[in-house]
Specification:
Rossmann fold
Length: about 425
Amino acid sequence: MGHVGIICPNTPGHLIAMVALADATRARGHRVTFFLLGDPPASVAAAGFETVALGGAVFPPDQYRIEFQRLGSLQGRAALKHTLSIAARAADAILEVGPTVVRAAGVTALAVDQASFPGGTVADQLELPFATVCNALLLNPDPAVPPYFTHWQPRDSGWARIRNRIAWAGLNRLYAPTLTRIQTHRRRLGLPVPAGIAATWSDRLQISQQPEIFEFPRRELPKHVRFVGPLRLPVEDQPVPFPWERLDGRPLIYASLGTLQNRIAGTFRVIAEACDRLDAQLVISTGHGVTPEELGELPGHPIVVSYAPQLELLRRSTFAVTHAGLNTVLETLTVGIPLVAVPVTNDQPGVAARVVWVGAGEAIAHKHVTSQALRAAVVRVQSGPSYRAAAERVRNSIQASGGAPRAAELIEQHLGFGV
């Protein structure tokens, strides 16, 4: 039996995927422990896994929580920069505290979120094998592919490759504070020093929860990247309360801005205005960013809840309006329905660009969204059969990808601790 340690950002989007991976790993006979900054998450405890604190006095839980609360009200480049500033501070804590607590737990291998850049250094310091798990879009640089924070479509032209290279170089400058911390730590230990962030990821196995059909054509993807599709538990552990009796039989539209960039209350009103007087019923989940009471009376009288049984509602919906968080988009495409994406920041513009690229929906940048523009996009997606056909193609690819069980099998094979 192996003992797998998991290092990932302590945010719902990353934890959903990692808990599913942990569950599938446990089903193969291995022990799993989470090593996290911030407060121990209820979702990890509810799934029966232990959480070991990583922050110590370097990045205490209350400060971690405050930083993410601030992120919820930011947009665009400001939100991306704040996310990476959190990553730099997290690097200090993981590099200082991580080796001690991981060693003490008796871990034999690590599964490290691709966004937890210093996790691989903890593994190398302890001489542990590790896999990189890509729970957001693939972060791997490639001049043939626009960076994940852009809305650009892939283009096979010289000017597009130059544009991509400039944008990747700009992102590397934002990575620099975190990378410098990792380089300094590794130099002090006599470990190989990475020239860039990509060199901090596993050279054995990198797992992406995208289905392969949902990634742009690449030229420089490492051979050890595996696309396994969404990492999800086989069934929901805890039922989520919802006023099912309020559904009135009209076609259903599901709208969510996720659990991080969801404090932009005006966007919920724009969505309600766009869907008002359509022959459909709108359900809005605020993701605990704002309360339904704070939104007040919205046009069309949609059902507004703080948290929703998302997958179950998506199965009943005709399409979705979303911030283009990867988890929500993949769940939407898992049930084969199209969507309109309103990306806010981080990898959401890149996710939205892929939705457009595969033909499963349309996208409007958050800074450009108006009720009129959103309504026009909603009507096109609602009435255009090609969008649903494309969503169903992605659904079929997801069904064939293997998900969390396949990811657990790959980790077992590539990290060398089969039962």
